[in-house]
Amino acid sequence: MAAAKKAVLGPLVGAVDQGTSSTRFLVFNSKTAELLSHHQVEIKQEFPREGWVEQDPKEILQSVYECIEKTCEKLGELNIDISNIKAIGVSNQRETTVVWDKLTGEPLYNAVAAPVSPGPSDPGAVFPSGSSIPAAGTSSVWLDLRTQSTVENLSKRIPGNNNFVKSKTGLPLSTYFSAVKLRWLLDNVRKVQKAVEEDRALFGTIDSWLIWSLTGGANGGVHCTDVTNASRTMLFNIHSLEWDKELCEFFEIPMKVLPNVRSSSEIYGLMCLGDQSAALVGQMCFQDGQAKNTYGTGCFLLCNTGRKCVFSEHGLLTTVAYKLGRDKPVYYALEGSVAIAGAVIRWLRDNLGIIKSSEEIEKLAKEVGTSYGCYFVPAFSGLYAPYWEPSARGIICGLTQFTNKCHIAFAALEAVCFQTREILDAMNRDCGIPLSHLQVDGGMTNNKILMQLQADILYIPVVKPSMPETTALGAAMAAGAAEGVGVWSLEPEDLSAVTMERFEPQINAEESEIRYSTWKKAVMKSVGWVTTQSSESGDPSIFCSLPLGFFIVSSMVMLIGARYISGIP
């Protein structure tokens, strides 16, 4: 019997979406933006000490290989010719820090996370089909808090009237960004120190690690990043679009370990685009004032500010949105980041055992339809935008004897929405023109109760595309549009119309404001729970507390004295 004829669908574009909790590979039809097939693999997070979050760079890389292989198998089963894949984009977690040995390709330490960002909701890369898909490094995950004392020491060196770090990078000095993670590695990991001394070390965010590995690794791999990922390191000048010598000297980072910076859409073996920037492209937010919110491990609300840098006065970040070509202009965005969104659902599942799967949370919340006055502030890694308060920790308050797991589940979903409201309010104040609706994407948007709650709490419509994988779609669009690939047009008249689902507010404005103001009270109660010493030292010794230590020592002396006086042997 003759072999089945392969379906011809025109140029296809793939996208690797490498996030905090999973990796996915998706393949799109470049003419229709239709998702043809995909595969997803969960990846582990390691918590070696309280406040520390790490991942294995080799596991991340292997998950990419597995996803590509399995997706190609699925396309084969659908009779789709994989040779039609003309380019691949990669979207990855942005601030997670990796250091590796360029001679061996081996990690020098685990990946150190940014203080826990999106199920997948991170930066990217692309390479033309036919490129080898081969290959790790030290990685610091974006949710990690071990660098708080480093941040405090560095902040003392910044003049109060001249915050040159923020003016050059658009970022506050925080544990969130890569420079302080790299500084911690250089200060504390001998293997990293030695590799830098011997000129063997390479640094990058996850996109750099994947691009270098996928383009040959130790055998000629390309060490590069794009402007969106570089803008999250705190070493990159977002005005000159170059690594900044003054910033590198301030953080004492040798410039020789840094990757070359490219635009977000060009071929050098691979092209990359940060996850949230990819989502901005995937949501077609090409106009000044357009915004999107991605719901993943964390929440990330970006507003396109066009070609001008807008510096926030209300706790938001100024970042590079995209640069879609070597000779194309750069576009900027205001961004607000929520550390814990989907991660709170995982916490309810893995830590408390309230649910067995992430999907169950919608069922529990639906049973009660209210939190019954219970408020959940999931500040597991402190508060991000707009507070930037590392001393905060998670609290659940307003509990009564009536409160049950359904109310806590509902409060967890509300927490995601309240945090988004805080960022949207800050964005409206900075931009001066309130958003009339919010475009949303990410895995959590499949939860209809969450989307309705978001519309109620924002008191504006929430608009969700029928295909929520806009982060991967954006990476694919940038890859397909790259000069030399040219299979995906980004001209407005050529972009496919996307079917949208719309959620309108269903409560009155007064009720929305009352719930929001009560949430703000709960947030204030979460602040000031930890000090630098208690959060970073990780030393469980009771003698970390001087009064308690003194009490115990004096009690031991008294007991020994009593035994001696009483004559007890």
Task: Outline the secondary-structure elements.
Layout: E1 12-18, E2 22-29, E3 35-42, E4 54-55, H1 57-77, E5 85-92, E6 97-101, E7 111-113, E8 127-128, E9 138-141, H2 148-155, H3 164-169, H4 178-188, H5 190-197, E10 201-205, H6 206-214, E11 224-226, H7 227-230, E12 236-237, E13 242-243, H8 245-251, E14 260-262, H9 275-282, E15 291-295, E16 299-306, E17 317-322, E18 331-338, H10 342-352, H11 360-368, E19 375-377, E20 395-397, H12 405-431, E21 438-441, H13 448-458, E22 462-465, H14 470-481, E23 500-503, H15 509-526, H16 532-536, H17 546-566
InterPro entries: ATPase_NBD, Carb_kinase_FGGY, Carb_kinase_FGGY_CS, FGGY_C, FGGY_N, GK1-3_metazoan-type
Organism: Suricata suricatta
GO molecular function, one term: ATP binding
Description:
With 569 residues, this protein is of the alpha+beta class. The chain has a domain at 342-432 and 511-526: ATPase, nucleotide binding domain (Nucleotidyltransferase, domain 5). It has helices spanning 57-77, 148-155, 164-169, 178-188, 190-197, 206-214, 227-230, 245-251, 275-282, 342-352, 360-368, 405-431, 448-458, 470-481, 509-526, 532-536, 546-566, and strands spanning 12-18, 22-29, 35-42, 54-55, 85-92, 97-101, 111-113, 127-128, 138-141, 201-205, 224-226, 236-237, 242-243, 260-262, 291-295, 299-306, 317-322, 331-338, 375-377, 395-397, 438-441, 462-465, 500-503. Strands 17-18-16-15-21-22-23 form a 7-stranded mixed beta sheet. α11 (360-368) crosses α12. Mean pLDDT is 82; it is low at 115-142 and 534-553.
